[in-house]
Every structure is written in structure tokens, then in C-alpha cells.
Design a protein that fits this description.
The protein is of the alpha/beta class. It is built from eight helices and eight strands. The chain has a domain of about 170 residues: Vaccinia Virus protein VP39 (Rossmann fold, 3-Layer(aba) Sandwich), CATH 3.40.50.150.
Length: about 270
């Protein structure tokens, strides 16, 4: 029984547990430079972060902590897993500012300012996503945020939804621009809530098709490298009226962020 919650069993089911060094580096970089995430970490006396479902090994939790602590040294990260053996293994790697505990969607009774749930909900039926979001967001500290995402085995293709207490805020798609043929290659890593909506007539499909056209139109920029071509693609999308976030700095990743309203499935 978890001493914080009084629950005999964490809420959720065990995931496959696949992990690897630097698999979540793109989302970590985005978190570190996101103005909203930085503000959330700076605005609380206790900058507690939960890494939910870190997998068979605690690698990505330790990496998340080291990166977020560059934003604020006082950040504490607690990795939660519902598999007791994974927790026992991870505790051997615990360091200052990083702990591991048994927990699921109830977050072991914690009230974090940021929750990362990567490659977790991808393994659930889509009908369970909304309830999982609601459970997680209900546990957030005031002003807290949730990132629900998925990525490929090497972390070259990543997509995630940022949520706050009121629901989804934005969708971000990020990649190694050297590893794609076209932006729609990212479709295979859309979060569970969107992946089945990548069909003609749906907003996320419209965005990806427009990105492919803009990518093709920016082919001439490819002589300067795919990162320059990606920025030219974003500029064209913006010119066509898509509400893409403009890049605030030169990025090694190809990043495309839009408000959730731009891709939300019709209700």
C-alpha cells in the first residue's frame, strides 16, 4: 500500500517498458526552452516533476532531471511506475533530486507542477485517454502542466500534447530533420488521441498535408541543410494562415507547434 494514497494498487497498467539513452531528448529540449514550462517551474516553492511510466530502466528520468535542473536547480523529479520490480531497479540509481516510487494515474498522491507521460497512453485504448488526462490534470499543482507524448525507438520522431488544468493547450511535432523524407513521416508518432484522425477532412491531416507541400516548396533551401529547409517550411505555413509557433532560436530539431484548437478532432 502506498503511504501517500492509501491505494493497494496504482491506477493503470504496465507498459512495455522500452527505453534508451537520449530517447526523449527532443521533448526535454523543448521543455527546457518552453516559456510556459519555465514559468511553471519558477513560480512554485516546490518545483516537483513526475515522470510517469519511465519504463524498465530509469535512464530518461535521470536525463529529464539533469536538464530541468538547468532551468531551476531546486527541481525534484519523482519517477513513477506501477511495476514494483522496475521501481526496485530504479531506486539503485536514485541521485540528489531524483526519487522513484510506485504509482500510476493517481500520481501516488503527489501534486506536481509538471507531469511527463511519454509512450504511456499510446498503449491504451483511445476511449480511455480523456479519463486518463482528467485524472492526471486533477492532480496538478496550481498552474501545473502535463505532457502526453510518444516517440520512435531512437527518439528521432516525437509528438506530444501539452495540457493544463483546463485541457489540451498545444500539439508539438519534433524530429531530426536529417531523418525524414517529409513532415508527414511524423504521423506515425501522433499521440493516441490524434493518430486515428489522420484522415482526409480532419484538421491534423490538413496540417500535415500542408506541411508536406511547404516542405516540397522549400526544397531549394535544402542546399543549406534540412534545418534551414524546415524553418522555410514553417515560414510558408505561417504565411498560409496556419497558427504555427515561430522558432524563437536556432534549433537542431525540426519543431512544429500549433494550438490544440488547430488540430482538435471535431466533437
Amino acid at each position: 500500500m502506498d503511504h501517500r494514497t492509501g491505494l493497494k494498487k496504482p491506477l493503470g497498467q504496465a507498459t512495455r517498458g522500452t527505453t534508451g539513452y537520449n530517447r526523449l531528448r527532443r521533448s526535454d529540449r523543448w521543455l527546457v526552452h518552453s516559456p510556459r514550462v519555465r514559468a511553471a517551474l519558477q513560480s512554485t516553492a516546490d518545483p516537483l516533476v513526475v515522470d510517469l511510466g519511465y519504463g524498465a530502466l530509469p535512464i530518461t528520468t535521470l536525463e529529464l532531471a539533469s536538464r530541468l535542473q538547468t532551468v531551476r536547480a531546486q527541481v525534484r523529479v519523482i519517477g513513477l511506475e506501477i511495476h514494483p520490480e522496475r521501481v526496485r531497479t530504479a531506486r539503485q540509481a536514485a541521485t540528489d533530486g531524483v526519487e522513484f516510487a510506485l504509482g500510476g494515474f493517481e500520481l501516488a498522491g503527489l501534486t506536481p507542477v509538471l507531469v511527463r507521460a511519454f509512450n504511456v497512453l499510446r498503449q491504451y485504448p483511445v476511449t480511455e485517454v480523456a479519463d486518463a488526462w482528467a485524472q492526471l490534470c486533477a492532480r496538478l499543482a496550481p498552474g501545473g502542466l502535463l505532457i502526453d507524448g510518444t516517440c520512435d525507438e531512437l527518439g528521432r520522431l516525437c509528438c506530444w500534447v501539452l495540457l493544463d488544468a483546463d485541457g489540451p493547450v498545444s500539439l508539438t511535432m519534433a524530429c531530426d530533420p536529417f531523418a525524414i523524407e517529409r513532415p508527414s513521416d511524423l504521423a506515425e508518432r501522433l499521440p493516441k488521441v490524434l493518430i486515428h484522425h489522420n484522415v482526409a477532412g480532419q484538421p491534423v491531416h490538413t496540417l500535415l498535408q500542408a506541411a508536406d507541400r511547404a516542405w516540397a516548396a522549400a526544397a531549394g533551401h535544402g542546399v543549406f541543410g534540412p534545418r534551414v529547409r524546415w524553418r522555410a517550411m514553417l515560414a510558408q505555413l505561417h504565411g498560409e494562415g496556419f497558427p504555427v509557433d515561430p522558432p524563437r532560436r536556432r534549433l537542431r530539431d525540426g519543431v512544429l507547434t500549433v494550438p490544440w484548437a488547430a488540430v482538435a478532432p471535431p466533437t
